[in-house]
TrEMBL record:
Pfam families: MTS. Gene3D superfamilies: Vaccinia Virus protein VP39. Keywords: Methyltransferase, S-adenosyl-L-methionine, Transferase. InterPro entries: HemK-like, MeTrfrase_put, N5-glutamine_MTase, SAM-dependent_MTases_sf, Small_mtfrase_dom. This is peptide chain release factor N(5)-glutamine methyltransferase. GO terms for biological process: methylation. GO terms for molecular function: peptide chain release factor N(5)-glutamine methyltransferase activity. Residues 70-168 form the Methyltransferase small domain. Its EC number is 2.1.1.297. It catalyses: L-glutaminyl-[peptide chain release factor] + S-adenosyl-L-methionine = N(5)-methyl-L-glutaminyl-[peptide chain release factor] + S-adenosyl-L-homocysteine + H(+). It comes from Actinoplanes derwentensis.
Length: 254
């Protein structure tokens, strides 16, 4: 049971720490705490800049509650565009590459229970988290090297929410991301597309005929991303969602 005084103190501490939505966050923390002492500890973690989702151990994403652990990338609302686009495809084999917590695959499977889902990530903490969320078919390794060879030529949808922040922009990210999320989940190299180019170069070996690669990009990366996929035999379309402030490239293997 959380006392009124403890909740009020939590709001004040979160305000002092610069949390814009202090009252809302205090309510979320209250739900996660068993007593005043536990609330105090959770508020202390949040006040030091740890993402709220890591503090409480979950994030709401795409209509599902995703388990999260400290140090695991927090799924962004804008990435729901990738799920929305994938959900319109015919059901089949789906791979969530650079899966992090497995949020994209989990949200897609809720909408399309007919899919056969596989996921992979390089970070062992992310893999453990994704396994807790997805219950199997989660692999650890570097991009396609993590996947079983039996998936070659059989992937109908390849969700690849790869790191796409240019290295020079990392210092300007919010402290929550810089200090509490793995750099490997953020750093996309000189122009933010280094990992994406690696995925584009190998995608045709893994996609089925008509299979689709879907990745999140920025507006400034559009031309270079299109060049990356068309240079490896894929056709490219760019989709945007103003409500989500999101942009994605869809690359199909014909």
């Amino acid at each position: 049971m959380i006392s009124t005084e403890a909740l009020a103190t939590a709001v004040l501490r979160l305000c002092a720490a610069g949390c814009v939505f202090a009252e809302d966050e205090a309510e979320v923390l209250r739900e996660a705490a068993v007593d005043d002492g536990a609330l105090d500890l959770l508020v202390s973690r949040r006040a030091t800049g740890e993402p709220l989702e890591q503090v409480v151990g979950w994030a709401d994403f795409g209509g599902v509650r995703v388990r999260l652990s400290p140090g695991v990338f927090v799924p962004r609302v804008r990435s729901e565009l990738l799920v929305n686009l994938a959900a319109t495809e015919v059901g089949g084999v789906v791979v969530d590459l650079c899966c992090g917590s497995g949020a994209l695959g989990l949200a897609l499977r809720r909408r399309r229970p007919d899919i056969v889902l596989h996921a992979a990530d390089l970070d062992p903490r992310a893999v453990a988290c994704a396994r807790a969320n997805l219950d199997g078919n989660v692999y650890q390794g570097d991009l396609f090297r993590a996947l079983p060879n039996t998936l070659r030529g059989r992937v109908d949808v390849l969700l690849a929410n790869v790191p796409y922040v240019a290295t020079r922009h990392l210092p300007f990210l919010p402290a929550e991301a810089r200090d509490h999320e793995p750099r490997s989940a953020l750093d996309g190299g000189d122009d933010g597309l280094a990992i994406f180019r690696r995925v584009a170069a190998e995608a045709s070996r893994w996609l089925s005929p008509g299979g689709l690669l879907i990745s999140e990009i920025t507006e400034a990366q559009t031309t270079a991303a299109i060049d990356a996929v068309t240079g490896h035999g894929l056709t490219a379309t760019v989709m945007t969602d103003d409500d989500l402030d999101a942009r994605a490239i869809l690359a199909r293997y014909l």
